[in-house]
Amino acid sequence: MTDPQNPFPLFPSTPETNASEYTPDNARHTSAAIPWRRLAWPTTMSVLGLLGIAALLAALFAATYAPENDESQASAAGHASSSATLATDTEATTTAPTSAAPSASGTANVTANGGEQENIPIAKLADKEWVTKIAKSSGIPERALQAYAGASIAVSRTHPSCGLGWNTLAAIGQVETEHGSTNNATLHADGTVAPSIIGVALDGNGNNRTPDTDRGEIDGDTTWDRAVGPMQFIPATWKSAAQDGNRDGKQDINQIDDAALAAGLYLCKTGGNLTQSKNWISAISAYNPSVDYNHRVAEAAQHYATINVD
After folding, report:
1. pLDDT for position 42
2. Prior bond to 67 cis, omega within 30?
3. What is the structure's pLDDT at 163?
4. Please, are residues 12 and 2 in contact by the beta-carbon 8 Å criterion?
5. What pLDDT is recorded for position 100?
6. According to the model, what pLDDT value does residue 30 have?
7. Measured between alpha carbons, how far is 249 from 246 in angstroms, rounded to an integer?
8. Spans in the chain with pLDDT lower than 50
9. Compositional bias (Pro residues) spans (predicted)?
């Protein structure tokens, strides 16, 4: 039961002792002999209050003087997707996913030997039967898979030491736009995605701050850049990385063959040999600096790598 004269059990009550009865034996039970007991509680509360105020002032100072997230904090290559958030973890995935090689079509093999591959649309480079079976097992739309596999085959011919698997491109396509289907978009038979998938403004609010670089010509925003297309390139990166994957004489950020080939070459250029974990991680981080993004792409890529045609 709690003593009404002493509501705090931490400091238990003691019998009153007359000062005239004070002796060394009863000194430890005499309130007059231990005045700190009466001061302990208010003193403790005062100290805790001061510590709390100090912590609050420190937090306010940090929030006020923290540097803004500007262009200098963007990835070296300048790519940042609409879903990119600043990394809060400390490490990306430590192991690169298995690099899966697609089955090439007869046309791809002939053109490779003849040296005329650059004239063949990449969507025709993967074996049709292989595409159908993998698409059915993976849930990837056939038209998207044709682009990912074809880009992988094309890159393997121009950059044989890169080791880029179709599964990495497919993983990026899945994480970025669900293979060209987010925001009610449709991936059409000709590889175009409509309406155009345009990400959020990269204004530094949870993403890399990237002021406009294309006067709104690609993303429709004259203030901030936005990621565009099935593989979510920002205008500045597309300007240097754009490719013509369907061989129609145009480089269309909203066409999945063009975008997939551009992504493949971009990854090889920034990462080198992607069969090495640190290089794969570096390449994906250059594509999007979020650690969470790196993990999601790795998980999807490894999943796709386990799919076979048996």
Report:
1. 59
2. no
3. 97
4. no
5. 83
6. 39
7. 8
8. 1-34, 36, 61-78, 80-90, 110, 113-114
9. 1-12
Tell me what pLDDT residue 9 has: 39
What is the token pair recorded at 180? 């060209």
SS (H, E, C) the chain: CCECCECCCCCCCCCCCCHHHCCCCCHHHCHHHCCHHHHHHHHHHHHHHHHHHHHHHHHHHHHHHCCCCCHHHCCCCCCCCCCCCCCCCCCCCCCCCCCCCCCECHHHHHHHHHCCHHHCCHHHCECHHHHHHHHHHHCCCHHHHHHHHHHHHHHHHHCCCCCCCHHHHHHHHHHHHCCCCHHHCEECCCCEEECCCECCCCCCCCCCCCECCCCCCCCCCCCECCCECCCCECHHHHHHHCCCCCCCCCCCCCEHHHHHHHHHHHHHHHHCCCCCHHHHHHHHHHHCCCHHHHHHHHHHHHHHHCCCCC
For the whole model, what pTM was predicted? Answer: 0.71
Instruction: Of 294, 282, 290, 296, give the one whose Cα is nearest residue 162.
Output: 282
Owner of token pair 């002021």: 211
Residue 35 class from Cβ within 10 Å (0-12 exposed, 13-18 middle, 19+ buried)?
exposed
Residue pointed to by tokens 């670089």: 213
